[in-house]
Amino acid sequence: MLGNFVYSNPTKLYFGDDSLKYLNEELSKYGKNIQLVYGGGSIKKNGIYDEVVKILKENGKEIFEDAGVMPNPTVEKLYEGCKIAKENNIDLILAVGGGSCCDYAKAVSVSAHCEEDPWEKYYIRMENVDNKIIPVGCILTMVGTGSEMNGGSVITNHEKKLKIGRVFDDNVFPKFSILNPKYTFTLPKYQMVAGFYDIMNHITEQYFSNTDDCTSDYIMEGLMKSLINSSKIAVINPRDYEARSNIMWTATWALNTLVEKGKSTDWMVHMIGQSIGAYTDATHGMTLSAVSLPYYRYIMPYGLEKFKRFAINVWNVNPSGKSDEEIAKEGLMKMENWMKELGLVMNLRELGVTEDMLEGIAKGSFILNGGYKVLNHEEIVNILKESM
Ligand code: NZQ
Ligand code: ZN
């Protein structure tokens, strides 16, 4: 049963290969001081930086650069960004990049005017935001996280070996996001396919729960089918606009709070993946692909009906003459074949994980209880061992 809920998503999206022009319109809503957040320089190489700066200047904005946001943004970088925002009385934080830039922009947005240590307040104690929030806008260049239309913000603390994701309320969601599929054409293949798997896993994390009949599950099946189809095309021809635009749109809907409606959610692959990230700084999507199959094979008996449905509805497994378990297993095998076709990382060693890290990674994996099986520490260690 769907139950009772409130649905609101205030992010305005501009989609398409001419969408940057709408930045003019958006800029007119904010003051003069813009904190321009970007990563390690890809936007300078592919020309997006020049296009954006031109528009900012034409609109009479003063630009305060905040470059060098690393994949898996760190708490030290967050403090740096807060200093820029506070000292310059920033009116809008404009993130140009992937999930890391967008997550980081949200973190700065709530932290710049926070009187306490924002890591402790917002990421450890998970308190509500009670200080001024600086608006965020996003120009997306990497697809996967859904950060462009959600309140998620993941920050890594290497010293404490913790990578923690926080979901803020909708007053922290980007005010607007510009989604031009062409901007993703220059992504290295490794990042592109990692993003594809991130999308798939966002969906499965929300799909593998509950046993009732829920509209959200049908929406997710459609999104997964579209992703599988387009990813197979994009991996061969990364410049296929149709495929890349479908994937960009799917990524947004996979994690903008719509498909979780009426559901409890699992998120254990992400919990384990984030802890792997804290130990290795590996690419987010690859931390998920490396543990997914051992995880799903382990929990399958606890949610057999749904795994069977997944096999039939998403992977077109023919059920005739097969037991439920055989059908479910065949579905996961088809997912495995698709993952290999994309060239995803399928084991933890490739990400630099060593045996001596496994206990620590398991300890850093927050145990959630929304999926088909509540794991204990030993079970997480076993899944990690299987993933080596
Ligand atoms: O830094 P630059 O030079 O820009 O290079 C980036 C980076 O090295 C590169 N890149 C991005 N766009 C490009 C490009 N290279 C060439 N051409 C382009 N158009 O790609 C690399 C990865 O970028 P990043 O932003 O780190 O990737 P992603 O979008 O996967 O973001 C990962 C972060 O998001 C968090 C992850 O944990 C991780 O910290 N997540 C955020 C979520 C959310 N907000 O809801 C949910 C996710 O599950 C995830 O946890
Ligand atoms: Zn993810």
Notes on the structure:
The protein has 388 residues and is an alpha/beta fold. The chain has two domains: 12-183, Rossmann fold (3-Layer(aba) Sandwich), CATH 3.40.50; 189-387, Dehydroquinate synthase-like, alpha domain, CATH 1.20.1090. The protein has helices at 22-27, 42-45, 48-58, 75-87, 99-111, 118-124, 189-207, 215-236, 241-254, 268-280, 284-299, 304-313, 324-342, 358-363, 377-387; strands at 12-15, 33-38, 62-66, 92-97, 136-140, 152-157, 162-167, 176-179. The strands form two sheets. It has a six-stranded parallel beta sheet with strand order 1-8-5-4-2-3, with helices on both faces. Strands 6-7 form a two-stranded antiparallel sheet. Helix 10 (268-280) crosses helix 11 (284-299) and helix 11 runs antiparallel to helix 13 (324-342). The chain is globular. The two termini are 39 Å apart. The model has no long low-confidence stretch (mean pLDDT 97). Residues 145, 198, 202, 270, 284 line the site of zinc ion (ZN).
CATH superfamily of the largest domain: Dehydroquinate synthase-like - alpha domain
**What's the CATH class of the largest domain, please?**
Mainly Alpha
CATH architecture of the largest domain: Up-down Bundle
Bound ligands: 5,6-dihydroxy-NADP, zinc ion
Instruction: Supply the helix-strand structural class.
Output: alpha/beta
Q: Any idea of the CATH topology of the largest domain?
A: Dehydroquinate synthase-like, alpha domain
Q: Using only CA atoms, what is the Rg?
A: 20 Å
- Overall pLDDT metric: 97
The domain count comes to 2
User: How many H/I helical runs?
Assistant: 15
Considering DSSP H and I runs of 4 or more, what fraction of the residues is helical? 40-55%
Oligomer: single chain
What's the overall geometry? globular
Largest sheet: 6 strands, parallel
What is the count of β-strands? 8
End-to-end separation in angstroms reads 39 Å
Low-confidence stretches: none
Order of strands side by side in the largest beta sheet?
Answer: 1-8-5-4-2-3
What amount of the residues lies in strands? Answer: 5-15%
* SSE pattern, N- to C-terminal: EHEHHEHEHHEEEEHHHHHHHHH
